[in-house]
Amino acid sequence: MAARPISTSTVSFGLVSLPVKLYSTGQSSAKVRFNWINRDTGARVKYQYVDSQSGEPVERDNMVKGYEFAKNQYVTFEPDELKAIEAQATEMIEITEFVPAADIDRIYLERAYYLGPARGGARAYRLLSAALTEMERVAIARHSARGKQRLVMIRPLGDGLILEQLFYPDEVRSFDEVPVEQGEVSDAELALARQFIEQAASDAFDPSRYRDEVKERVQNLIDRKIEGEQITMAPQEEPETKIIDLMEALKASLGGAGEKRADTRAEAVGAG
């Protein structure tokens, strides 16, 4: 089944206008979702807005958006006022510069969308993808849509293009906020760590080797429950030993990595 676009836009660079369609890169329907159910009636429970002071339900028509400028003090905005302060919905993706692909730190990446050419944009689409690939650069652009202006990156993906929404600098937290204790690493520990990495190394990342085992287990339990089976939790086995010493943990990990690597290779051979 062909993917359905979630929106349309136009990529502009220089005097070139490239009509595109945006597609989701994931499938939210693939997730296992649960709803809250009234135990007594079996009906689904719906969310309801209530006044934080009186506790009384508030109808949507009687609700207005507000900004808290001091504790429990709000300035409110009517819908027409919100529209006035929103960015102009041009739906344009305006490329401002081209930078080396390696310059974009992954910490700035927020979410991604596939880009496909819309009617009349095939040649410009192929041209931009080919040029970015050859020069090993990505396009940085402003995307104005739905009342907001987002910072985005367009990069080649095979013969196509992908748009990745980026965080603005003030939205990225500094790693300096993360408490990290001081600790010295010995040459022997570093050598064992390198050996462990080399033992578990692969030439390339193959996502087909992985699957959501928790989702599969949950779906299996749901199917059994639908069939009328009573679900009970199996007792969890505690680890046989707890290794505290870092050197001993690395040595033990080397043996475990070798066994796991052999199992993975066996599965790959069996699948082939």
| Number of strand segments | 9
The amount of beta strand, in percent, is 25-35%
- Please identify, by name, the CATH architecture of the domain at 7-25 and 87-171: Beta Barrel
Write down the secondary-structure element order. Answer: EEEEHEEHEEEHHH
Overall shape: it is extended
Helix content: 25-40%
Report the CATH C-level class of the domain at 7-25 and 87-171: Mainly Beta
Could you report the average pLDDT, rounded to the nearest whole number? 85
C-alpha-based Rg, rounded: 26 Å
- In CATH, the topology of the domain at 7-25 and 87-171 is named Ku70, Chain: A, Domain 2
Short description:
By secondary structure, this protein is α+β, with helices and mostly antiparallel strands.
Q: Can you offer a commentary on this structure?
A:
The two termini are 27 Å apart. Among the domains are: 7-25 and 87-171, Ku70, Chain: A, Domain 2, CATH 2.40.290.10; 187-198 and 209-233 and 242-271, no CATH class. Helix content is 27%, strand content 26%. The longest helix is centred in the last third of the chain and has 26 residues, at 246-271. It is extended and about 65 Å long. The model is unreliable at 268-272 (pLDDT under 50). A seven-stranded mixed β-barrel has the order 1-2-6-9-8-7-5. A two-stranded antiparallel sheet has the order 3-4. A hairpin with a 2-residue loop joins strand 7 and strand 8. With 272 residues, the chain is an alpha+beta fold.
Quickly list its features:
extended, Ku70, Chain: A, Domain 2, alpha+beta, 9 strands, 7-stranded mixed beta barrel, two-stranded antiparallel ribbon, 27% helix, single chain, 272 residues, disordered C terminus
